[in-house]
């Protein structure tokens, strides 16, 4: 049954849409074609917003970061969630990551971790990333030729990378994985801790408790890891407060691995579904950098960010009023027919590939280079050893409106030792 424009707009605020690729892309294609700037007046359970689905319009809004602010509504949450966040912000106890911040705070706080993600730091980390890629391809062999690639391989590899960078002990990695899945999986019945904002808030409080202990330890005995750099950072001569410090850890520890694991899982699924592209990439390994970006475009793990207008703004002949929020739909931008030649074709040699999966402008993803390195290292290790691979069951996506991808990918394969 075909969607109406209003139904398509509401689909962007329905976590179930993101677990159903066809439904989601049908909705976004309709909006791009008929109402690229569309007012979603009555999304069930959510406050209204403008759905922005064209690549050029998202870039225009991202460029105007002084007019379109992250605060007070940086991501799409339920109306109940928005109200709770406002209340906690007034009390000074709200999560305040880089995602939540605007300049000048954003610029200053982002700089604390920026050096850890620059090319020099990435080169220093490359051997560790390759070692971990080899470990997890070896682990596929240990599983006897069949596994749930998401749960047994993909969620662990980038987690080990980012938590090694932070300097956390391996004994804590499983705890961080569970907390991350609960934080980002609040809309998915298989992953969430509870159904109410208060129950889901306990996940954040567990994160905060863990990282407050870590901050105290690194301030007492500084080390040479990213956790110590965050714990001992100073702004205007003063250390970050407890909530800003914990918030920094949360964004690094969660976004630093969940998005990458989604890309690796979704990338492998795409290669299985497009054996011609798998063969092409194996025959020409020089295509790997292009293939990595195509996997990132194809999956687009971050589904949206929100911005709020600080004054009236005209976009495509539509006036967005001061105080109204816009939803930037990145999966839609990354299938925009105006930008991508045959956007629903998975093409490991796609060039140019102007995807917006890492955002654009001042909020461009801090860890983009690390994510590309991890995806590349994994497939450079896997493909030369891969003799065969096929699905061993039905893949399943996470129900979400924010970050996610596959939650199950059963595969059967043969690998060289």
From TrEMBL:
Cited InterPro entries: Cyt_P450, Cyt_P450_B, Cyt_P450_CS, Cyt_P450_sf
GO molecular function, a single term: steroid hydroxylase activity
GO biological process, one term: cholesterol catabolic process
Entries under Pfam families matching the protein: p450 (PF00067)
UniProtKB keywords: Heme, Iron, Metal-binding, Monooxygenase, Oxidoreductase
Statement: the UniProt record of this protein carries the keyword Metal-binding: yes
Keyword Iron-sulfur part of the UniProt annotation: no
CDD domains: CYP142-like
UniProt-listed PANTHER family: BIOTIN BIOSYNTHESIS CYTOCHROME P450, P450, PUTATIVE (EUROFUNG)-RELATED
Family: Belongs to the cytochrome P450 family.
Name listed for the protein in its UniProt record: Cytochrome P450
Organism of derivation: Actinomadura rudentiformis
């Amino acid at each position: 049954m075909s969607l109406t424009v209003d139904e398509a707009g509401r689909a962007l605020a329905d976590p179930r849409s993101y677990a159903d690729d066809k439904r989601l892309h049908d909705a976004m294609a309709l909006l791009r074609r008929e109402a690229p700037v569309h007012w979603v007046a009555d999304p069930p359970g959510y406050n209204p917003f403008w759905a922005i689905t064209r690549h050029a319009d998202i870039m225009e809004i991202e460029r105007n970061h002084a007019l379109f602010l992250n605060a007070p509504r940086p991501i799409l949450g339920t109306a109940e969630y928005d109200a709770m966040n406002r209340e906690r912000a007034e009390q000074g106890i709200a999560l305040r990551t880089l995602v939540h911040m605007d300049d000048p705070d954003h610029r200053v706080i982002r700089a604390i971790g920026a050096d850890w993600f620059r090319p020099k730091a990435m080169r220093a980390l490359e051997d560790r990333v390759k070692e971990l890629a080899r470990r997890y391809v070896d682990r596929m062999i240990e599983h006897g030729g069949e596994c749930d690639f998401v749960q047994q391989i993909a969620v662990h590899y980038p987690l080990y990378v980012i938590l090694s960078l932070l300097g956390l002990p391996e004994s804590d990695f499983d705890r961080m994985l569970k907390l991350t899945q609960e934080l980002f999986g609040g809309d998915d019945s298989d992953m969430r801790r509870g159904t109410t904002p208060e129950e889901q808030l306990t996940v954040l409080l567990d994160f905060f408790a863990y990282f407050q202990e870590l901050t105290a330890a690194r301030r007492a005995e500084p080390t040479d890891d990213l956790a110590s750099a965050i714990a001992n950072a100073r702004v205007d001569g003063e250390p970050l407060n407890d909530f800003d410090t914990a918030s920094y850890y949360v964004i690094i520890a969660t976004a630093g691995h969940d998005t990458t694991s989604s890309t690796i899982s979704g990338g492998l699924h795409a290669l299985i579904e497009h054996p011609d592209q798998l063969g092409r990439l194996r025959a020409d390994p020089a295509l790997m950098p292009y293939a990595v970006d195509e996997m990132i475009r194809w999956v687009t793990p971050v589904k949206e960010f929100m911005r709020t207008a600080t004054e009236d703004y005209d976009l495509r002949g539509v006036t967005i009023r001061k105080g109204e929020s816009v939803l930037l739909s990145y999966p839609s931008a990354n299938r925009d027919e105006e930008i991508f030649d045959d956007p629903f074709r998975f093409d490991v040699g796609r060039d140019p590939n102007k995807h917006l999966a890492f955002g654009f402008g001042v909020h461009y993803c801090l860890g983009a280079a690390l994510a590309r390195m991890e995806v590349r290292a994994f497939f450079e290790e896997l493909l030369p050893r891969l003799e065969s691979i096929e699905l061993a069951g039905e893949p399943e996506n996470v129900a979400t409106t924010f970050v996610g991808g596959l939650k199950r990918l059963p595969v059967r394969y043969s690998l060289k030792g």
